[in-house]
Amino acid sequence: MPMKMKYLGSSGTKVSELCLGTMTFGQTGSMPGQCGESASHELLTAFADAGGNFIDSANVYQGGVSEQYVGSWLAGKARDDFVVATKLRFGAGAEGGANNQGLGRKHVKAAVARSLANLQTDCIDLLQIHAWDVGTPIKEIIRLLAV
């Protein structure tokens, strides 16, 4: 039986009822679910073969490695067949400094650019806020995300 599809809110975009979370992609410890690139690709392929098209990551998962694994897998696929979600708010990777986190314009623009590069795509289908930022006014956040 094929995986059921639903509309993503009022966007008109159809997503599989199940979304594959990739938080453990890039971890190589002994905890269940942790996996390297090869195992990550196997999971993504099995998910797609089962009819899944909705993949979730975040810029902070393993310092961006999770997004990189998703991106390297997507590179060989028809990009329009998948709905890719990622999140921002926290800093990722080796970059530091006062503006490496939050929902201010500087960090959001840098985080989106980094996620696009990691995911090897020109489009993030669903950009999510990973956590609230009390330092950025809600009007600024909405202005940034209203694309």
Q: What does the model show?
A:
- By secondary structure, this protein is an alpha/beta fold.
- The protein has a single domain, classed as NADP-dependent oxidoreductase domain (TIM Barrel, Alpha-Beta Barrel), CATH 3.20.20.
- Helices cover 31% and strands 15% of the residues.
- The chain contains 4 helices and 6 strands; from the N terminus they run E-E-E-H-E-H-E-H-E-H.
- Strands 3-4-5-6 form a 4-stranded parallel β-sheet, with helices on one face. Strands 1-2 form a two-stranded antiparallel ribbon.
Number of strands: 6
Largest β-sheet summary? 4 strands, parallel
Structural domain count:
1
Shape: globular
Integer-rounded radius of gyration? 16 Å
What is the arithmetic mean of pLDDT? 86
User: For the largest beta sheet, what order do the strands appear in spatially?
Assistant: 3-4-5-6
Structural class estimated from helices and strands: alpha/beta
Distance between the termini: 36 Å
Q: What is the beta-strand fraction?
A: 5-15%
| Count of alpha/pi helices | 4
CATH fold description? TIM Barrel
The CATH class designation is Alpha Beta
Please name the fourth-level CATH homologous superfamily: NADP-dependent oxidoreductase domain
List low-confidence stretches.
none
Under the CATH scheme, the architecture is Alpha-Beta Barrel
SSE order, one letter for each helix or strand: EEEHEHEHEH
Question: Helix coverage percent of residues?
Answer: 25-40%
